[in-house]
Amino acid sequence: MTGHKVLLIGAGGVGTIVAYGIHLAGNSELSIVVRRDFAKVNDVGYNIDSIDYGIVEGWKPENIYPSVAAAASSGTVYQYVIITTKNLPDIAKVEELAEPVITPGVTVVVLIQNGFDLCRPFFDKYPKNVVISGITYVGSHNSGGSVHQTQPDRSFFGSGRNPYIPEDLQESKVKEFLSIYSNGRNKPVYITNEREYRYKKLIYNAAMNTSCALAGVDTGRLELSGALDAVAIPAMREIIAIAKADGINLPNDCINNAIHGDDGDWFEPSMLIDVKKGNPIELEVILGNVLRVAEELNVKTPCLSLLYGLLKAVQFRLRENQGHFTLPIDRPISERFYK
Amino acid sequence: MTGHKVLLIGAGGVGTIVAYGIHLAGNSELSIVVRRDFAKVNDVGYNIDSIDYGIVEGWKPENIYPSVAAAASSGTVYQYVIITTKNLPDIAKVEELAEPVITPGVTVVVLIQNGFDLCRPFFDKYPKNVVISGITYVGSHNSGGSVHQTQPDRSFFGSGRNPYIPEDLQESKVKEFLSIYSNGRNKPVYITNEREYRYKKLIYNAAMNTSCALAGVDTGRLELSGALDAVAIPAMREIIAIAKADGINLPNDCINNAIHGDDGDWFEPSMLIDVKKGNPIELEVILGNVLRVAEELNVKTPCLSLLYGLLKAVQFRLRENQGHFTLPIDRPISERFYK
Fold it and tell me: Which residues does the UniProt record annotate as the domain Ketopantoate reductase C-terminal (chains A, B) (predicted)?
């Protein structure tokens, strides 16, 4: 097998569908990093039940590695490194996780992750590398190597706009990546405005996903309890204001699209599911990053900032429960004094 | 036994200590309503382990009733009805619960409950009755008739200021109640500014208690995670602003007193405990009432309103889980449309 050397890190629900899509396209030598399910996947491959690709049994890519270090030690210079892990910079920075497999000035990084302003840390660390920003609406879940894709792979790819290298080079890499990924059954779309797509997705994720996670309710109960109107809609308007200050006029129907996206379903968004499972939440990329941009642009964000403050305490609890730190038995007495 | 006919409704952790204090004072014929623990208490009485009163075994008041209706059917005209239940107007209104035992123009109602602006519904329903507002800092827990009082009974009693009857009559009833309650070991205090005490207690309850309940953390973790500064302190400042517009200047140290009240303890406030136990929260009296006053006084409350909106969704979930209502299997599709 010849072709582009492609490594995908994080072959869970979304990652496996991306990997299989690249495999079907047939233009790459595909490797993947699978951590939790390595033993099983390495042994029997993936079983996929996909709305795009049908039933696939025992699928394996060319190479399967249990870690990024193992993928690096093969000696391969990867032309593309696709990252489909969760993005949790307050726990492990993605740009550091991928460091062993990124060749400066060569490797194109493709970030298919939730959140906003994800490329910035890569430009700081790898100023000569192209980073492609991938926004996906695929619905897919992985359970120990059995992947169930329930919603078609609708994905949008654009240049992350590295300020240190020519934009036309970056655009050409986006187009090349689409040729690696398109297989006639998925429909990845080339875009030149990834930031607008990121903002649009934040309308849902920064406002509804966060509110549901805090209140412990799905989007239907958020609406029926009045919290959609009292909390999420004002938060959405703050995202629209930040985007506007950032030079992006979000379309008029963006709020409606967000609130009607789950019509008919008592839908539990990702952050709520993480909280219920006791997993860390993607708080920094969903709220922290956009709040830093709001501050740079002098946009007031009373709702989003309060949601962020409360979710920081939730994250603190989730991280403590996962053993990331241990507190003393006696609570330290604070020196703080307020007037 | 002669003396004032006193009925106490809600003999849990706080209520039992109040009842026992009245018993020791010896100026009343005391009846209590005990619902959940009636059978046991009626049989063997209370076992009390009290920082104020020591060990007391098998204590019973003159009369024990399993319901307000039973207390009413005794035919007694109660001179005092003390209410120490939780106050959950969105589930059951206290002024309706107590109706069978309130004689218009006669019965003095004593509300020893958490929250703010508790007397207003009584004045609307019983315009000729005195209502005494009791603010207590007692720490006491009841477990099936075994009561453990860990913090001394510090209580403050003032007129609720019924606008329909003379204030001097109300003040004299407060003083009379203190003579019924004081026993030389507890120290109930006569106050003429109950609203200020209610506001002071809201500094803690409307800001820290609510934030802890939403984030699922104790007050220590609220502080360490940054949410005390990001959420609770701004919410406290809104309470101070509402009080000020209401003509009450809260003391300079009120924020410090609130945040240092739990020094050294990983303390879980009441609303957090309710959420963890799946019990409804005292949301309306802790936040709803003060927000209605803020609106009347045109005070902006971005933090408190957002906390309220999120906690409405939490209350919705808690009430649904307790079977207060049932939702359809398919989520109804909303007609709402936002621009």
Answer: 195-315
Residue A255: CATH number of its domain: 1.10.1040.10
Q: Examine the pLDDT at B58 and tell me if it is beyond 80.
A: yes
- Express each pLDDT in B308-339 by its tens digit: 999 999 999 999 999 999 999 999 887 777 77
Q: What residues of A are in contact with residue B310 (Cβ under 8 Å)? A: 211, 214-215, 227, 230-231, 310
**What average pLDDT is seen over chain B?**
95
How open is the CA angle B300-B304-B305, to the nearest 5 degrees?
A: 75
Residues A70-85 pLDDT 10s: 999 999 999 999 999 9
Residue B19 and residue B6 in contact, taking contact as beta carbons nearer than 8 Å:
no
In this predicted model, what pLDDT tens digit does every residue of A130-141 receive, in sequence order?
999 999 988 899
B96 and B126 part of one domain: yes
Is the pLDDT score of B1 beyond 60?
no
Which of B225, B320, B336 lies closest to A316 in CB terms?
B225
Q: What is the largest CA-CA distance in chain B?
A: 70
Residues of B in contact with A264 (CB under 8 A): 330-331, 333
Residues B240 and B151 in one domain: no
Residue A255's domain spans which residues?
A: 195-321
- Residue whose token pair is 């309308």: A203
Selecting from A214, A317, A338 the residue whose C-beta is nearest the C-beta of B310 gives A214
Q: Are residues B233 and B119 in the same domain?
A: no
Task: Please answer yes or no on whether B220 and A331 come within 8 Å at the CB atom.
Answer: yes
Domain total in chain A: 2
Residues A73, A143 share a domain: yes
Q: Virtual CA dihedral for A100, A101, A106, A108, nearest 10 degrees?
A: -120
Contact B152, B52 (CB under 8 A): yes
CA–CA distance from B143 to each of A250, B14, B270 (Å)? 56, 12, 16
Whether residues B188 and B225 share a domain: the answer is no
| Cross-chain residue pair B313–A337, CB shorter than 8 Å | no
A25-A27-A32-A37 Cα dihedral, nearest 10 degrees: 30
> Do A231 and B306 make contact, defined as CB atoms within 8 angstroms?
yes
Q: What count of CB pairs under 8 Å joins A to B?
A: 159
The stretches in chain A having pLDDT less than 50 are 1
Residue B337 inside a domain? The answer is no
- Euclidean distance between CA atoms B251 and B21, whole angstroms: 31
Q: Are A133 and A199 in the same domain?
A: no
Q: Do A333 and B309 touch (CB under 8 A)?
A: no
Cβ <8 Å between A252 and B305: no
Note the pLDDT of residue A264: 86
Q: Which of B331, B334, B335 to mutate to test the interface with A (most CBs of A within 10 A)?
A: B331
CB contact under 8 A, B336 and A259: yes
Question: Chain A contacts of B328, Cβ < 8 Å?
Answer: none
